[in-house]
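Following up on my earlier thread - several people asked me to post the actual chain instead of describing it. Fair enough. Here it is, all 97 residues.
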Amino acid sequence: MSDACLDVKYVADLARLELSHEEIPHFQSQLDKVLTHIEQILSIDVDGVEPTSYPTPVYDRVRQDEAQEGFGQEGALKNAPDQTMGQIRVPKVVDAS
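Reply from S.P.:
Thanks for posting it. Predicted structure:
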């Protein structure tokens, strides 16, 4: 088995994947393409480029994030289909058996 095929076998073992002998060359060609692409990315000079959390500008913020008054218990219970003792009543979801 060639060194390249050992790379695929090693990665497959890490991912707990069982590959047949026929699948290994197929995945090796895909792994080669991925590694070539990574080499291209690593060759890009990014000195002086500020890191960002978003690749494009964010325009969807419409207001400052400030605390606002909530709607309280009465408002929360206003549209509740079933309520008791000031709480929303829901069907039991845990089986006791």
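The CA atoms of residues 89 and 95 lie 17 Å apart. That should answer part of your original question.
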